[in-house]
Amino acid sequence: MTGETTAATGKRAAAKKDAKPRVYGRRRAKLQKGLVYGAATLTFAVLLFLIAYILIRGIPHLKPSLFAWTYNSDNVSMMPAIITTVQMTLLALLLAVPLGLFTAIYLNEYAARGNKLVGIIRITTETLSGIPSIVYGLFGMLFFVTRLKWNYSLLSGAMTLAIMILPLIMRTAEEALMAVPDSFREGSFGLGAGRLRTVFRIVLPAAMPGILSGIILAIGRIVGETAALIFTAGTMAQIPTLFQSGRTLAIHMYVLSGEGLHMNEAYATAVVLLVVVLLMNALSALIARKLTKK
Fold it and tell me: Could you state, in chain order, the average pLDDT of each consecutive group of 10 residues for the chain (294 residues)?
């Protein structure tokens, strides 16, 4: 009996050894993988549908009169809006990027751990990120337009947009700086470099792709903004100076569609707006690639 029992035990052990290991949670893993692929496919399909819809409805209505240098009720030219969009974007970035970048450098490279000021700044940044754009527009109208008496102008709109995108640039820049390995800093300090040289010669170049990603997101928000600019920059269809009113492409499209008389021109404006955003993003990506190579 003992020999038979030993033989049976040996057979069971050999059978377990030859059997394939059981994988637990295989069905759950397949389900999760399917959900991930499904969500990605749905997102890509929606994006393609939106782009195709805009192009199909807008391209047939693009005509030379839409790019006339001056606007009138007959040609409803978008050229002043294109130039105003570029001016507004550059001015808002010029105001917001240095302030947001230097604040992120202070929070990540200079501020001591557990500093109460750092906590206050981060809470304030997160709060500003969740405020609707219409609230920024009301603030800009009350402060820049009325209090400072800048009236509806390019500067009022750019200052409002700079405040709006400041939290986005600051948070993305801080996350990019935090992603740089500490070994980079330690190696620079070991070679005798100071903190300032380490930040600007070692840390910033390594974090530049992430910083530019935040700037690209900020450009998209600037170009697509309407509510805040209606209250601060106005809706005048002209090429503005610093203290003159002007409309961006998004406001131009909003005005045309709101009137209901130029829907075809509004779709054509949407095509140009899409192209402008793609060009700005491509330019930012090109700059990021060149800085990364350096």
Answer: 53 52 68 91 92 89 86 85 91 92 88 78 84 91 92 93 92 89 84 84 85 86 88 88 89 84 86 85 76 64
**Would you state the pLDDT for residue 206?**
85
275, 249 contact by CB (below 8 A): no
Model-level pTM?
0.81
Cβ partners under 8 Å of residue 263, min gap 6? 256, 257
CA dist., res. 36 & res. 176, Å (int): 26
CA dihedral 43, 48, 51, 54 (to 10 degrees): -110
Q: Spell 223-262 as b/e; 16+ CB within 10 A means b.
A: bebbbbbbbbbbbbbbbbeeebbbbbbbbbbbbbbeeeeb
The angle that helices 79-105 and 263-293 make with each other, rounded to 10 degrees, is 40
Distance CA 122, CA 173 (A): 13
Round to whole Å and give the CA distance between 88 and 131. 21
Q: How far apart are CA 90 and CA 51, in angstroms?
A: 26
